[in-house]
Amino acid sequence: MKDSKDKPENEENKSKVSRRGFLGASAASAATIAGLGFSGVMTPTEFAEAASKARANSHHTVGPGELDEYYGFWSGGHSGEVRIIGVPSMRELMRIPVFNIDSATGWGLTNESKLIKGDSADILCGDAHHPHMSMTDGHYDGKYVFINDKLNTRVARIRCDVMKTDKMLTVPNVQAIHGLRVQKVPHTKYVYCNGEFRIPQPNDGRDLNDPTKYFTMFNVIDAESMEMAFQVIVDGNLDNTDADYTGRFAASTCYNSEEGVTLAETMRNERDWLVVYDIHAIEKAVKAGKFTTIGDSKVPVVDGRKKAKSQFTRYIPVPKSPHGINTSPDGKYFVANGKLSPTVTIIEIDKLSALFAGKIKERDTVVGEPELGLGPLHTAFDGRGNAYTTLFIDSQIAKWSVEDAIRSYKGEKVNYIKQKLDVHYQPGHNHTTMGETRDADGKYLISLCKFSKDRFLSTGPLKPENDQLIDISGSEMKLIHDGPTFAEPHDCMMVHRSKVKPKKIWTRDDPIFAETVKQAKKDGVTLEGENKVIRKGNKVRVYMTSIAPNFGMSEFNVKLGDEVTVIVTNLDRVEDVTHGFVMTQHGVSMEVGPQQTSSITFKADKPGVFWFYCHWFCHALHMEMRGRMLVEKS
Ligand code: K7E
Ligand code: CUA
Questions:
Q1: Are 342 and 423 found together in one domain?
Q2: What is the rounded average pLDDT of the residues 495-506?
Q3: For the chain, percent of residues with pLDDT exceeding 90
Q4: Do 88 and 68 form a contact (C-beta atoms < 8 A)?
Q5: Which amino acids bring their CB within 6 angstroms of ligand 1?
Q6: How far is the CA of 561 from the centre of ligand 2 (A)?
């Protein structure tokens, strides 16, 4: 926002409104705005922005018609989707189908979505955990959100200009992609993700019970092409991961240092590891052709196991089955969360080069190991030197000072714990606004609680989770909102709204439907105006347009047994005029946004008349936006 004080008096004109004029309408927020140092003249837009900011700051409520300060991207867990939540209002703004199928938008049903899902097009479920946005120099760049599917070992990418999934990859040679983060610096060239479960290699039924054949890998994906860059064989099972702010290192928490095959065997040791990867060293080896491959896969694989004594990895012993790993926004530390130990382990990133050079030992990189409480899972940061750790078993968030914890580790008598706040109940991930970037602003903290128990009206045996919003801008954490959610937000991130610039309508050359446009060209059809049925054998393509409140075609004929593809192009250019196309009795449903082309294929397996209609409320005559498919008995 521009400070109007800097402008000469004579610049004032009719489009500008004096702040005084708004005082009556909104005295409370105007007073706060005055406190923020705005004075003189503002445009109505400037004023509205300032008002919404002031209200968000003072009351955490966002009034009707006002905009939230942050976009929250929430994982939908085993619902398989990503949800966009406005913060601080906690209003759900949108759902982005990813690993699930979606009745409204046709995700998983349309040809465009099946093409994006690729080799997993027929898998209809997923388990999404970790949504993370691409970065440039450690700042969110608003381009992509990446998310893992633990269940089917996939990684997907969401394009933030349209808020749709645009790429999906099944990671080869591993099972259950869990932890996922992006390279922060110099930019997100790579997406890092952990294969969690160890499997026999190759996993073809040969060695079901031979522990020496089992391993898993750390996986690196090229963020732009969404193809595999390389894989690193590791010891143990990988859990979560994060990256540093130099671009050279990434790290994964790693349990099962016992290398057990059965569950009981995996929990015996008192210490497991934080595995640190030297990404530059691995890149160099891959470039030089020093890698192997597994089975039919062409993905370069390097061996980062301890016995390989490579320059690719180091294993830092940390207490028992560590879970979350979080990089502090000043770039100084990795914090590994103990889970089965009441501690978190602070590792100084600056010491890692010496560790890789063999000048110091693994545990020499540890500069703190504060005891916080029972079941530490994940840690977030406020950019003011404080860390916030979820304590699953204690149902609390512990706020602690990183530097004090380090002083205490050196032997000084200092109380590093600043506050413990009860949350309801059993928190998994937590996250601060902008907290996984250099821009951590310390305004809000989310505690994603796994149980809600008595917090809401009972919904029967299955209860919602509870996402709690906590104000951390003052010296004390204050709980300000309970937010019931359906299964199951594991993780989230909160991005200032200035970082995200979504489009208002589709552009005709969007890659998401480029293949469909290409096919139309081959068929000699102009999508932006022609309505036409094209038959090749028993394959029928029905091209139609839509413009509120009409389809370009009120009926079309096919023959029993035909494979029918309906391609709809929405000619409306008006923001928010989305149409849909659904065909009765055929399981056909899809969204067609302004200027979008969508297509769906089905079998005309019943003779008779079938009405199709627009299911997206678009116009006063929306109910009339329909037509007939006539299926002839050949
Ligand atoms: Cu802790 Cu999958 Cu990030 Cu759940 S993980 S909590
Ligand atoms: Cu078009 Cu409803």
A1: no
A2: 98
A3: 86
A4: yes
A5: 129-130, 178, 240, 323-324, 377-378, 428-429, 490-491
A6: 28
